[in-house]
Amino acid sequence: NQEEKQTDSNTAEIDGEELKESDDLDVLRDEESAKEKPGSRKHLPWVIGGAVLILVLAVGMIVGIQKQHAGRTQEKYENQISKAEKCMEEMDYEKAKKAYEEAIRLEPKKSEPYLGMANLYVAQDQPDKAEAVLKKAVKQVEKKEQEEVKVRYQFYTYPKKALKKENGSCD
Predict the structure, then answer these.
(1) SS3 169
(2) What is the sign, positive or negative, of the torsion defined by CA atoms of 155, 157, 160, 161?
(3) Which of 20, 85, 130, 142 lies in disulfide reach of 118, CB 3.0 to 4.6 Å?
(4) In the predicted structure, residue 165 carries a pLDDT above the cut 90
(5) Bridge partners for 6 per DSSP
(6) How far apart are CA 112 and CA 145, in angstroms?
(7) C-alpha pair distances (Å), 131 with each of 24, 41, 110, 112, 140
(8) CA 62, CA 52: separation in Å to the nearest integer?
(9) Between vectors from CA 19 to CA 16 and to CA 25, what angle results, nearest 5°?
(10) What does pLDDT average to over the chain?
(11) pLDDT at 108
């Protein structure tokens, strides 16, 4: 036999005991906080989402930095090739050699600096050095650029292979 009497909008009376709405809310909050533990799974989706967002941002930054670095490397490479070609025209072989070596250091898988260096050695009447550079290039350059290097290598090595050592004549 519970008697309930409404006294105002914020309080109620049950069996002579006055209850306030704020008391009920405090009890509910205490029950909810007792259920939630510090390692509660309630916030887990937010934590995972935040971690994923941070990871995506970090990867994006790394990719951007790498692309920027690659662009600078390509620009430096092209500058070295241009410098080497200009030096070759001016017959400044020492500077051309240094520029080709720098281009090879920057882009070791491209054939152009190796071919230029071989031309440099041929211009200096050093075919053995040209052959050595092209032999190295065959091992280093990308597959799609190897054919030109192989053709040039064969061109430079053919006379040596075709000449007989005994009498200096061709077959």
Answers:
(1) coil
(2) negative
(3) 130
(4) no
(5) 12
(6) 9
(7) 93, 69, 17, 15, 14
(8) 15
(9) 160
(10) 78
(11) 92
Tokens of 71: 């662009």
- CA-to-CA distance for 95 and 106, rounded, in angstroms? 17
Which tokens in the block code for residue 33? 């906080």
**Facing residues of 12 across strands?**
6, 19
SS3 label, residue 6? strand
Q: One-letter amino acid identity for 16?
A: G
Strands of the chain, DSSP E: 4-8, 11-14, 17-20
Ramachandran class of 107: left when φ > 0, alpha when ψ lies in -120 to 50, beta otherwise: beta
Which tokens is 120 given? Answer: 């440099």
pTM: 0.56
Count the helix, strand and coil residues of the chain and give each as a percent rounded to the nearest 5: 75, 10, 20
**Per the structure block, which two tokens stand in for 72?**
């600078």
Output phi, psi for 4, to 5 deg: -120, 130
- Three-state DSSP at 124 gives coil
DSSP H/E element including 117: helix 112-123
Q: pLDDT tens digits for 63-84? A: 877 777 766 888 999 999 999 9
Beta strands in 29-168, from DSSP E residues, in sequence order? none
